[in-house]
Design a protein that fits this description.
This protein is of the alpha/beta class and about 375 residues long. It has 13 helices and 16 strands. The chain has 4 domains: about 80 residues, Chorismate Mutase Domain, subunit A (Up-down Bundle); about 100 residues, Alpha-Beta Plaits (2-Layer Sandwich); about 100 residues, D-Maltodextrin-Binding Protein, domain 2, CATH 3.40.190.10; about 80 residues, D-Maltodextrin-Binding Protein, domain 2, CATH 3.40.190. Helix 2 runs antiparallel to helix 3. The longest helix has about 35 residues. It is elongated and about 80 Å long. The relative contact order is 0.13.
Length: about 375
């Protein structure tokens, strides 16, 4: 056979497979009706394991893994179909619907907002991007920001979550595992770092540099050209600028925003010292209460998956089957749990889409540890 004939043969086989898939789903739907009428659970782990083992043996050693993977996805879709058969929405799906209906139509222009750092921090810039006239409570640590929200001291908190050069802010992800909150909005801030020092100091005078660990990573190339400098980590870039201003030292400098130069009376020794001019940090705005504002087209989730082969693959099949795009997938070790990981997902899907409702209902039913972090839009 030539290539055209072989492809025609493949096409014929594919048509048969699609017809058989539809037949299988029709029978699965009948089984779902029976299960619902008789109070039986949708998921039957013993039956699925036995079926996959049998099909793997039928496929033979050369094709066993491929057949198990293919049928694993078929079974996922069968369960999803059965759960949709006239059932009531999950408690989480109902909560999301209520939030969509009850949240105000406009994001509040004024609010009390907690952020980490001091005056001049990039978090402050993010607060002012998100709110027209925020009242800002500066916190020493990211944990303090979460605590301010949980205690009701502030309605909102603003936190950096990822940088285009240095990656995720791991300390924020770790706190996300420990606290309960919802993301209600996000924004991206262009980051332009400068080297700041007290008036009269020159580049040749500098011996010590202070900044946040993320800013240090973002300016690694610039710092590598000055190996004689000792680099110190601070809690915040603005705090580093304040520390240098109050130190009285001519041999100390801070990596911070240019705005901090005027704020703390410092001079700029070097501008735009980050490795790449395309340097942005994404900030999230969190709340104790679930709020879903109009236009919400991004959703964030945290999941704990069973530590067994194929767990992540089976989860991803849910997104793929519904055409939902993942814009972020991050894993973080669970504190106090050996070899257990929390997976963080950002989904690019409107909260109003049927595919979103179906996905939430399935995850809520299937996963033992599943945290919905909110649906929101990003302010530019």
């Amino acid at each position: 056979m030539d290539m055209t004939e072989m492809r025609q043969k493949i096409d014929a086989i594919d048509h048969q497979m699609v017809a058989l898939y539809r037949q299988r789903m029709e029978v699965a739907e009948q089984i779902g009706v029976y299960k619902r009428a008789n109070g039986l659970p949708v998921y039957d782990g013993e039956r699925e394991r036995a079926l996959l083992n049998k099909l793997g043996e039928l496929a033979g050693e050369a094709h066993e893994n491929g057949v198990r993977a293919m049928y694993g996805m078929v079974l996922e879709q069968s369960r999803a179909l059965q759960r949709r058969l006239g059932g009531q929405p999950s408690a989480l799906a109902a909560e999301i619907t209520r939030a969509v209906e009850e949240t105000e139509r406009l994001f509040p222009p004024k609010a009390m907002v907690a952020c980490q750092g001091v005056e001049g921090a990039y978090s402050q810039i993010a607060c002012e991007r998100l709110f027209r006239a925020p009242g800002i409570l500066y916190c020493k640590t990211f944990e303090n920001v979460f605590s301010a929200i949980e205690s009701g001291l502030c309605r909102y908190g603003v936190l950096p979550i990822e940088n285009s050069l240095a990656g995720s802010v791991n300390s924020v992800y770790d706190q996300m595992i420990a606290h309960r909150f919802y993301i209600v909005r996000s924004t991206r801030i262009k980051i332009d770092h400068a080297l700041l020092a007290r008036p009269g100091a020159s580049l040749a005078d500098i011996r010590e540099v202070y900044s946040h660990e993320q800013a240090i990573h973002q300016c690694a190339d610039f710092l590598a050209a000055h190996k004689e400098w000792h680099v110190n980590v601070c809690g915040n870039t603005a705090a580093a600028a304040k520390l240098v201003a109050e130190s009285g030292r001519q041999d100390a400098a801070a990596i911070s925003s240019g705005a901090c130069a005027a704020l703390y009376g410092l001079n700029t020794l070097a501008e735009d010292i980050q490795n790449n001019s395309n340097n942005h940090t994404r900030f999230i705005c969190i709340s104790k209460r679930l709020e879903i504002y109009p236009g919400a087209d991004r959703t964030s989730l945290m999941l704990v998956l069973p530590n067994r082969p194929g767990s992540l693959y089976r989860l991803l099949s849910h997104f793929y089957a519904r055409g939902i795009n993942l814009t972020k997938l991050e894993s973080r070790p669970m504190p106090g749990h050996d070899f257990e990981f929390m997976f963080y997902f950002d989904l690019d899907v409107p909260v109003y889409a049927p595919a979103f409702s179906d996905l939430i209902a399935e995850l809520d039913a299937e996963l033992e540890q599943f945290t919905y972090l909110g649906s929101y839009s990003e302010t530019v």
